[in-house]
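Hey, can you fold this?
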Amino acid sequence: MKRLQVPNQHISQWETVFDRIKMLREEGVEAAIDQVNWKSDFPKSLPVTVRVAHDGERLYLYYIVTGEAIRAENRKDFGSVWEDSCVEFFMQREGEKIYRNFECNVLGVLLAAQHETREKAVQLTREVQSVFRHSTICHRYEEGRQVSDWTMYLEIPKEVMGFAEHESLAGQKIRANFYKCGDKTPEPHFLSWNSIDLPSPNFHVPRFFGLLELE
């Protein structure tokens, strides 16, 4: 199981999203989303990283995806974003059986839910409104075909992750995994930070989560 020491940084002190991203890139911890778990059926890999930090009140994530043939069909929250070019964060509080997933396509369209199992879930329809998202997309050509480099910046309030108003993220331990997928992209892929030992693609398995230790 991988572990990640997540630094406590005063990111919210910066007014613009560009300054916040700059600080996160400089002061956040980086994790590579590089595990190709189902190589025989889905061998596609591409460079993907996520920068992570928190300030006690929010968790900050900054994904960087390089050279993807993107798909961006879903335009409304709670759509089938996993079919598009998508980055994901799954998390589970210590001592809880439920877990939460945050799935965001290249356009910033978000799916968020609280799960007992993969099938038994409650959508976080009210809470999702407080999750800030900012994406960039740069199109280019690579060996004669169009690909895109894109980023996704997320600010997830602690309450959306199941913490109470009086609780701080500082000192918390969260079981989690980071993902990159695209079920219906030109090159379907299923990448993770912590590896998954299952016969077919499935991200909804907390026993394969890693550990985030929040400073």
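Oh, and this one too while you're at it.
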Amino acid sequence: MRPIRLPATTIALLAAVSIVVAIAGAAQTGNLKLDVLGEEGAGAKNPAHLIAANGKEAGQVTPGSSVALPPGEYKLVMPIIGGQIVKDGVQIEAGRTHTVLINNVAVLQVSAKDKTGVDPGFGVTVTTTDLPHAKVASFISGDKYLFAPSEVDVHVDAPPQGYDWHAVALAPGRHALLTLSEVVKADLVVQTVMSKIPFDNSTRVVILRAGTQTKVAESDPGSEHRFKLDPGDYDAYVENRSGKGKPYVTSAGIHLDSGAKVERTVPLD
């Protein structure tokens, strides 16, 4: 069978009709945009349900997003943790966008990033602040959730033993962002010398928190004095057991960043 070739004018007419039909179809719907605290609430995982006049659900929309709906009156019902938000009489008109603003909620987000800056998605548990610390919600780090204003305890299952925040205030209209970054221990080598010659076999080194007498670590005489320490500021107290030179020296102001490798030379002359 030979293919039918339509005249160019017919093809153009069909294209025009298609465009008109598409425009007419678009004009038969309107849009509902849900704005919850602007960018602070955008992307929150709580979906709002749109209920039509017949009582049936016509669609869902999340904060910061829009949904197309046939013209008519709707009820917006958005469950939040600890309550729900209800908006009656939401009117949708053909070809227009109706923005629903919600401000009387709180946003909670836990950001737990590893040393590469990626959030692995640790488990987050939210409980009441009072005994017996009843569970309020659980979700994954990095996600945003909407809460009724309250005060809560938050636990994240980040290694090695998790991390806790107590009495986090979830205030209306506010975004509570709790951040946790993976701590990578720093490598500190304290090199003791006499006349510029290594003297570690005759010295004992004690690491103290900067400006205090709180001992963090110690190293007896040996081939080297090497420490794995959390980021922070420290002092190194060196005890010389050789009977030569200074009997003790304090090297103060050792700053260690996460994952850093630092060597401090301490002369005993």
